[in-house]
């Protein structure tokens, strides 16, 4: 009974669990239903709400990955030089001066924050901030101007936020380390950019100050994308033509002036209403996009670069934010204040009030009232020196008994060619060759267009513009594409769809400029052709069979009409120079329109009824006058005979056949272009300079092949320089002079040995030749015996064997013939060498 009771309890418990699961599933299903359905159901009870709250609390939401960290633990200091790990006596003295200066500053200005003077470097060694700067001129012409340097630093490095947004960092790494790891904070960015600018000749300084939230977080969402701003189109003013003295009066205007004025007023009111709505919409968007109040406004620490006017023809002072690479005026409201700034020679403290941001600051570093400097005799003063006095002072001359700044303790920056080619962080490997920009709609989530810039692509793609509204894609190419593409506009890569393809006409033989294609038409524009063709338009009708990728070759679209236009040929008279010809294939007619003479207002026209050369009975059709309908501007001057019309019609038939063939070739070319573009988009191959020997595999293979050939040539030369008498001279006592009889014997033995080697080589080639011939004969005999029972696979193997055997027999035969031709020449050459060999001088006496 107890066992039965336990079994019943287990069954009841299982039923309760199953009922609970069904209730839970029903609650979940109710939550997933649409709102309209849930309105009709009963509300949730308190028990159901508690269960739902418990289940939701158990759900763990994954937190997005934080920004990449860049700490001393991630830096390998084993390969750093000794100057990074220790301080020289001069640097220790400089640190003592900096500590003394900091203490005096804290005593005189207790309400100011501590100075950023000697942070720790990678090796936990304190270094003066000015020694971290290393003026460097990059060996690339692209990195000579300030804008290209700033853009390179912004693209090449990855931004890492400050550990504490209210304090400067405790560590300041060298630009070499930042360059190797390609990441850093705002102080690392500014240090690297300032080093490059000073090396390029700019008067640049690193700034320690305060910035806005957007500036510190590199937030550009509220700024207008410069790539979406279209340049202003210059409107050319039309020159007014002076009225002639005798002109025909224009017809009287019978329109009501009152109605025109009312229409103008109505249009003005509509435009004013549209401007008002647009202005209200802009104000609403600006209010929606307005930044929220920042609780730390004015306290966020940020570093940027100050460039003073004077050097490199800089007209006025300006700031550079190293995060974005953008330049700003010193009056910009994003820069809220400056604590200090420094370059590779000195350190200055701002003693001016920053209540109005940086708008009222005067950047005269020679004024000790506004800028308190730390070191004397290390930099020129703008206030106390004129240009005449400044010309006789050298920056490198240190003033005696004054503390001078030591040289930079960091290594020089070196950007490898592999890094300068991409100019993007190593963590963004996908973006090695493209950049994407989006234009956001009024709601902030609607993507209107996408622009992607490319560099160093093998298919020469430069820009891809995608319009999300119309789904139109436009590809722009640089010169050098295999198909000479310049612009490709399309909505789908399927054939026979709407597309426009523009070409570089100088790279094409046929002079094609543009090709426009739809489902039923194809239009081509030409320039610079010897036949003066300028335009071709083909109309198609639907196919009977279904469309396929290779349908243009197997099942071309039926052509209904071909229209061609030509430029004026000055070598022909206007009444004989065709301006337009139309092939009406369905109606079997050909229409011609000639160019108009300068002294005429109409042009000649001619129409041919294209008939077959033979009728249904096989009789040859004769040209009749009704087969050509013409309109002559000067019928008395140019009367064409029937023979001329017959020859013209035969010529037009040939031209019609040629035009149809060219239209068919154009369809095939479009298919080839589409196939090539799909392969290029799938491959994404980058071009590598032939001078980049590390990454250019083709150049590397070619260089290795050349080195291998040179090595083989060297070995061949060494073999030819071997001593042919050494084996025979080894048989004689060393140092003994050869007698006449010994010289003759050595000569005969050397020649007989060489002759025997030539005979052995010939016999070896002959034996291999006979062996291959016998094996081929046996195989042929086997094939003759078993020819009936062989399968197709066996026949293919037999044919392949015969082909290879015949190739080997032919090669052996050529080698044997060549050996027979060269053997006597080699024998005579060796005999002559032996005769001229100084060691066998007795031979010369015999034949003297």
Automatic annotation (TrEMBL):
Keyword Coiled coil appears in the UniProt entry: yes
Gene (UniProt): DRC7
Protein name: Dynein regulatory complex subunit 7
Annotated ranges, domain Dynein regulatory complex subunit 7 MORN: 445-689
Localization: Cytoplasm, Cytoskeleton, Flagellum axoneme
One example of a Gene Ontology biological process annotation: cell differentiation
Alphabetically ordered keywords of this record: Cell projection, Cilium, Coiled coil, Cytoplasm, Cytoskeleton, Differentiation, Flagellum, Spermatogenesis
Record's GO cellular component terms: motile cilium
């Amino acid at each position: 009974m107890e066992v039965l009771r336990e079994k019943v309890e287990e069954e009841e418990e299982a039923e309760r669990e199953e009922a609970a699961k069904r209730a839970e599933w029903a609650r979940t299903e109710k939550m997933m239903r649409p709102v309209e359905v849930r309105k009709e159901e009963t509300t949730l009870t308190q028990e159901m709400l508690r269960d739902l709250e418990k289940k939701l609390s158990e759900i763990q939401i994954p937190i997005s990955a934080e920004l990449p960290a860049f700490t001393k633990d991630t830096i390998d200091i084993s390969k750093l030089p000794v100057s990074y790990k220790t301080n020289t006596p001069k640097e220790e003295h400089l640190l003592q001066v900096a500590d003394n200066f900091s203490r005096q500053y804290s005593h005189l200005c207790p309400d100011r924050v501590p100075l950023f003077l000697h942070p720790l470097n990678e090796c936990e060694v304190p270094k003066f901030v000015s020694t971290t700067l290393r003026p460097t001129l990059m060996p690339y012409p692209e990195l000579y101007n300030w804008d290209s340097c700033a853009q390179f630093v912004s693209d090449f490095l990855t931004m890492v936020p400050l550990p504490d947004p209210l304090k400067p960092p405790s560590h300041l790494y060298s630009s070499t380390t930042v360059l190797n790891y390609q990441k850093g904070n705002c102080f690392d960015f500014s240090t690297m950019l300032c080093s490059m600018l000073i090396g390029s000749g700019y008067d640049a300084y690193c700034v320690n100050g305060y910035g806005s939230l957007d500036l510190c977080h590199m937030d550009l969402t509220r700024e207008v994308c410069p790539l979406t701003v279209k340049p202003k189109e210059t409107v050319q003013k039309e020159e007014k033509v002076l009225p002639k003295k005798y002109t025909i009066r224009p017809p009287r205007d019978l329109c009501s002036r009152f109605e025109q004025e009312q229409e103008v007023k109505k249009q003005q009111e509509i435009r004013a209403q549209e401007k008002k709505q647009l202005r209200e919409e802009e104000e609403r968007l600006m209010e929606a996009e307005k930044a929220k109040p920042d609780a730390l406004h004015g306290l966020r620490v940020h570093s940027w670069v100050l460039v003073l006017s004077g050097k490199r023809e800089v007209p006025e002072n300006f700031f550079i934010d190293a995060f974005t690479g953008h330049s700003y005026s010193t009056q910009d409201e994003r820069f809220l204040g400056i604590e200090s700034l420094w370059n590779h020679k000195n350190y200055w403290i701002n003693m001016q009030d920053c209540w109005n941001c940086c708008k009222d600051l005067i950047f005269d570093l020679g004024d000790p009232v506004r800028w308190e400097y730390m070191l004397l005799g290390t930099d020129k003063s703008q206030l106390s020196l004129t240009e005449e006095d400044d010309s006789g002072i050298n920056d490198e001359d240190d003033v005696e008994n004054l503390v001078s700044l030591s040289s930079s303790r960091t290594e020089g920056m070196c950007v490898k060619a592999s890094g300068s080619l991409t100019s993007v962080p190593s963590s963004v490997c996908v973006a090695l060759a493209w950049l994407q920009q989006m234009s956001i709609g009024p709601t902030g989530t609607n993507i209107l267009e996408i622009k992607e810039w490319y560099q160093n692509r093998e298919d020469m793609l430069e820009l891809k513009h995608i319009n999300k509204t119309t789904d139109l894609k436009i590809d722009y190419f640089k010169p050098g594409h295999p198909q000479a593409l310049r612009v490709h506009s399309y909505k789908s890569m399927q054939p026979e769809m709407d597309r426009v393809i523009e070409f570089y006409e100088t790279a094409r033989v046929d002079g094609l400029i543009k090709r426009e294609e739809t489902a039923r038409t194809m239009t081509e524009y030409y320039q610079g052709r010897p036949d003066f063709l300028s335009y071709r338009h083909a109309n198609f009708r639907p196919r009977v069979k279904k469309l396929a990728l290779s349908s243009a070759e197997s099942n071309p679209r039926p052509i209904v009409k071909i229209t061609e236009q030509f430029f004026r040929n000055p070598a022909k008279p206007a009444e004989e120079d065709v301006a337009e010809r139309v092939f009406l294939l369905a109606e079997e007619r050909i229409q011609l329109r000639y160019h108009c003479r300068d002294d005429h207002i109409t042009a000649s026209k001619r129409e041919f009824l294209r008939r077959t050369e033979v009728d249904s009975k096989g009789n040859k059709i004769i040209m009749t006058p009704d087969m050509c309908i013409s309109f002559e501007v000067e019928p008395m001057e140019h009367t064409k005979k029937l023979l001329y019309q017959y020859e013209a019609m035969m010529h037009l038939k040939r031209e019609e056949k040629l035009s149809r063939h060219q239209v068919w070739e154009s369809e095939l070319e479009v298919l080839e272009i589409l196939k090539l573009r799909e392969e290029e988009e799938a491959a994404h191959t980058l071009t590598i300079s032939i001078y980049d020997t590390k990454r250019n595999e083709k150049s590397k293979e070619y260089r290795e092949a050349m080195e291998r050939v040179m090595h083989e040539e060297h070995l061949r030369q060494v073999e030819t320089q071997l001593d042919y008498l050494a084996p025979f001279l080894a048989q004689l006592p060393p140092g003994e002079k050869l007698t006449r009889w010994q010289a003759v014997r050595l000569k005969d033995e050397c020649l007989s040995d060489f002759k025997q080697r030539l005979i052995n080589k010939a016999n070896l080639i002959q034996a291999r030749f006979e062996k291959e011939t016998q094996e081929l004969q046996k195989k042929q005999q086997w094939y003759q015996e078993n020819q009936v029972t062989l399968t197709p696979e066996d026949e293919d193997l037999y044919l392949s064997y015969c082909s290879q055997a015949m190739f080997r027999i032919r090669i052996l035969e050529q080698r044997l013939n060549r050996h027979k031709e060269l053997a006597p020449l080699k024998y005579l050459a060796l005999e002559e060498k032996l005769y001229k060999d100084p060691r066998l001088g007795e031979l010369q006496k015999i034949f003297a």
